[in-house]
Amino acid sequence: MLTKNIGFQLGIGDKLSSSTTSTFTNTSSDVSPLPANSSTSTDNYTLTGGSSLQITPAIRLCAGGDGKLQPYSVIGLIIGTSPTATWEDKNTSSSTGNPTNITDEVQTISGGMMLGFHGSIGLLYKVTDQIGISAEIFEDVMNWSPSKSVITTYTDNGVSQLSNMTTSQIETDYGSSATTSSTSSPGSPTQSTNVHFPWSSYGFRISVQYSLGGK
Question: Domains in the chain: how many in total?
Fold first, then answer.
C-alpha cells in the first residue's frame, strides 16, 4: 500500500473468450413484371476467440482501517496480447426458380494489441497482514483491433474455391489508414482500415491476495 487507504496493484491473467453467434436475414420480393419473384439471403456469423495474456496495473482504494474486513474498489488499465480468433460467415441464399446456394467462409484473425479499462468493487478478509481472501464484482471494458486476417476456408456448395482466389482476396492487412488503387497487385494483401471487435466482460470472482510490505 502506498498509504493506509491507497495502494498499487498489478494483475496478470490469461483471458479465455467464448464463441458468439449472430444471424441476419434479408428477404425481398418483386411482383411486377409477372411472374412474381422472391429471394432470401441469411448470414450466420460466428466469432470464436482464443486466449489473451493481460497485464492490469491499477490503483486500489481501501476502507475499513486495520479491521479484518475491508471494502475496496479498483480502477486500472488493461494491456493485452493479441488472441488468434476465427470468424465464420455461412450464407444461405435462395430465389424463385433457382436452387439454394450455400457459401462458407472462415477467416483467421490475429495481431494487434488489446487496450481497455478495469473496474471492480469487493470485500477483503485479511487472514494475516500479508494474505487475504477477496470477493468482488468486476467489469473489463475493452476492444480488439487485429492487424491481419486470412481466409482459410471458402466453399461454394461444398466445393473449395481457395485455389481460384488471389492473395489480395485471401489476405487483408489492417491499419489506421489504407490506400486503395485500381492497379493494386493481386499478389499482395488487401489494405483496409482498422476493424474493432468487442472483448468486454463482467462477472464475480473469489481470489487469494498477497500484499507486499504488510499493512
Answer: 1
